[in-house]
Amino acid sequence: MTPLASTFSNLRAKKRKAFIPFISLGDPNLDATRIFLAALAKAGATAMELGFPYSDPIADGAVIQASYTRALANRTGMNELLLFAQSLKEDSDIASTPRVAMLSYSLIHRKGVANFVEEAKASHISGLIVPDLPVEESTALLALTQKAGLDLIQLVTPTTPKDRAKRILDSSSGFVYCVSVAGITGERKELPPQLMEQLGWLRSQTDLPLCVGFGISRPDQVETLRDHCDGVIVGSALVRLCEQIGTKSVAQVSTEIGALASSLIQALHPAS
């Protein structure tokens, strides 16, 4: 059983939901990233999504694009990011929380698919999210991740045809990334009403955990979703706080990140 599968199995046994925060690696620097991840772990994050900066993001909105630009300005390369991910295993606050890499297939291809999977495993990464890799072209990466004991988390969007969605579900592991809206990442005032219908259909097709991302930033949105999914993924709302570095200290931003995470986690688990 992979770390993610074990984590979700434990959650289901306890009738709890997953909170998966996204943080851009190296924004504003890796020392700050470590502090932010520790704050999220202490708040109760179930798993962490590590964004590997890329100059041509596929589905990322303005907030995450800007964070990648800030991170890339530090000229931090893939090898350093993988070493950083590996070092998190030695951090007592973060070590027990599974980490998932979110990155462009171009970065994997440049390093060599087999080499990257091997190094990701050595870096204690539990799974991969590769939004620009179509399911039709994911066979080779899927085989290598399965052999290495990593999960390949695939995305289903509101516009994915049902026959294609079934294929995506069949080639997914860890959890299914359910994109809430058609478009790019970013905070939304409202979630689309058809999302609940989509989640209901996906639940009828798979036993994999369903985690919803894109546009989730407030406790009331989490409250709306919690009975329809297995977890939520929150990125832009957290990354936006990182923009304040310079006018606020890393410690202040870390406190705000932890407070936002705590409020969203509380919304996932109302008092009985």
Defining key terms:
about 270 residues, alpha/beta, TIM Barrel, nine-stranded parallel beta sheet, globular
The CATH topology assignment is TIM Barrel
Discrete helix count = 12
- Tell me the span between the first and last alpha carbons: 31 Å
Helix-residue proportion: 40-55%
Strand count, sense and barrel status of the largest sheet are: 9 strands, parallel
Layout of SSEs?
Blueprint: H1 3-14, E1 18-24, H2 30-43, E2 48-51, H3 62-72, H4 78-87, E3 99-102, H5 105-111, H6 113-122, E4 127-129, H7 139-148, E5 151-153, E6 155-156, H8 162-170, E7 176-179, H9 194-205, E8 210-213, H10 219-225, E9 231-234, H11 236-242, H12 250-268
Parallel strand pairs: 1-2, 1-9, 2-3, 3-4, 4-5, 6-7, 7-8, 8-9
Quick synopsis:
The protein is of the alpha/beta class and 272 residues long.
Give a verbal description of the structure.
By secondary structure, the chain is α/β, with parallel strands linked by helices. The protein has a single domain, classed as Aldolase class I (TIM Barrel, Alpha-Beta Barrel), CATH 3.20.20. The chain has twelve helices and nine strands. It has a nine-stranded parallel sheet with strand order 5-4-3-2-1-9-8-7-6. β6, α8 (162-170) and β7 (176-179) form a beta-alpha-beta unit. The longest helix has 19 residues, at 250-268. The model is unreliable at 183-188 (pLDDT under 50).
